[in-house]
Specification:
six-stranded mixed beta sheet, disordered C terminus, globular
Length: about 375
């Protein structure tokens, strides 16, 4: 396995929340299978896709929000090749056509409560025929594409092998040391891809600061950790509000991408780590996030930014600060950083900052098999 395999499958640009973007793409694919006036658009989806789409803001759509708008906009797009960046093609004409569909009540949604994994099925009926597109298990896995009832594209819906999922399973089966070795093996091309993600996700985080509600963690006098957490919150808030800025997703989620990328990049740079080490830490965090996502599922009851990406960022930061497999230091245990920020053997931690408490520096070393 190569790090580039992870980046190809799990490190992808997207515009807007991933689930409505996937719904819009599926609708665009289905609509492209025929011509004429759109008469009816029907969506069948799993419960968690429905939840994640319910009230989220959509890029380039004014103040439009939610699942029906995502479905309508997708069905009215003329470009079905943008994937999770489908909202890039939304313009005034698309908005007007989508609004007309909503006013005609031409849209319907059905939740299939038997589905415990991602499932998006869109059927678009037009005056000259109809199309159907199915995304299964992963946001970009086109399982089936049909034109007038005849299959014209996609993988077999019953196929057991799904490339992104199988990659995650393979990652989940590796040792921590194996994942570290993968992160350190980054090629120049891999590092360019990682830097692209840093640039995109820092941009939306900084943009989001202006969108945070009054009183949301005062911006002055913050310690480093709180300031970085505020930036992550700002990026996620901007994305879920429909900001028209592309993000780099991780393991099928833009919020995971933001959550891991922003703190790792800024912490590493501000502390003074070499950029190559920052890139490797980010790669390691991405690998850990994808492995955790295999255990937790592509869609979970709470946002994957809190669980899978939480594991990823903790691992990446420990890697940055010199953690290694098998080191399990807890506050108060022998070798744990003390109140003065001392590491094993009583040495002053070279990255300890004035004003940080012992409990803050006494990180649980998670890199243990």
């Amino acid at each position: 396995m190569r790090l580039s395999d992870l980046l190809e499958s799990e490190w992808k640009p997207a515009l807007g929340c991933t689930e409505p973007a996937a719904v819009a793409w599926a609708a665009a694919l289905a609509a492209a299978q025929s011509t004429g006036t759109i008469q009816r658009v029907h969506l069948v989806c799993d419960p968690r896709t429905y939840k994640n789409c319910y009230a989220v803001g959509l890029p380039n759509a004014g103040k439009a929000t939610g699942l029906l708008w995502a479905l309508a906009l997708g069905a009215c797009l003329t470009d079905d090749g943008l994937g999770l960046r489908s909202f890039e093609a939304v313009g005034t004409g698309t908005l007007e056509a989508a609004r007309a569909l909503l006013e005609r009540r031409a849209l319907s949604v059905e939740v299939d409560a038997t589905r415990d994994a991602l499932r998006i099925e869109v059927t678009v009926v037009r005056s000259e025929g109809q199309g159907r597109a199915v995304l299964d298990r992963e946001h970009t896995h086109l399982a089936s594409l049909e034109r007038n009832g005849q299959r014209v594209g996609g993988l077999d819906e019953g196929a057991a092998a799904k490339p992104p999922a199988s990659l995650r399973e393979r990652l989940a089966g590796l040792r921590i040391q194996d994942l570290l070795d993968l992160a350190r093996s980054a090629t120049p091309e891999d590092r360019v891809r990682l830097q692209e993600g840093i640039t995109l996700n820092l941009a939306i985080a900084r943009h989001g600061l202006s969108l945070l509600p009054p009183g949301f963690v005062a911006p002055t006098g913050l310690d480093t950790q709180t300031r970085l957490a505020r930036l992550v919150s700002a990026g996620v808030h901007a994305r879920m509000s429909g900001a028209s800025l592309t993000v780099m997703t991780l393991a099928g989620s833009g919020n995971k991408g933001i959550t891991v990328t922003v703190p790792v990049a800024l912490w590493g740079r501000e502390v003074g780590h070499p950029e190559a080490r920052v890139e490797e830490a980010l790669a390691f965090g991405a690998l850990m996030t994808s492995a955790a996502t295999w255990h937790l599922g592509t869609l979970s009851a709470i946002c994957g930014a809190a669980n899978a990406a939480g594991i990823g960022i903790a691992s990446a930061l420990v890697f940055l600060e010199g953690g290694r497999p098998g080191w399990r230091n807890l506050p108060g245990q022998p070798g744990a950083p003390g109140p003065g920020g001392h590491g094993p053997g009583g040495r002053q931690h070279p990255r300890h900052h004035a004003g940080q408490t012992g409990s803050t520096r006494s990180t649980i070393w998670l890199l243990a098999n």
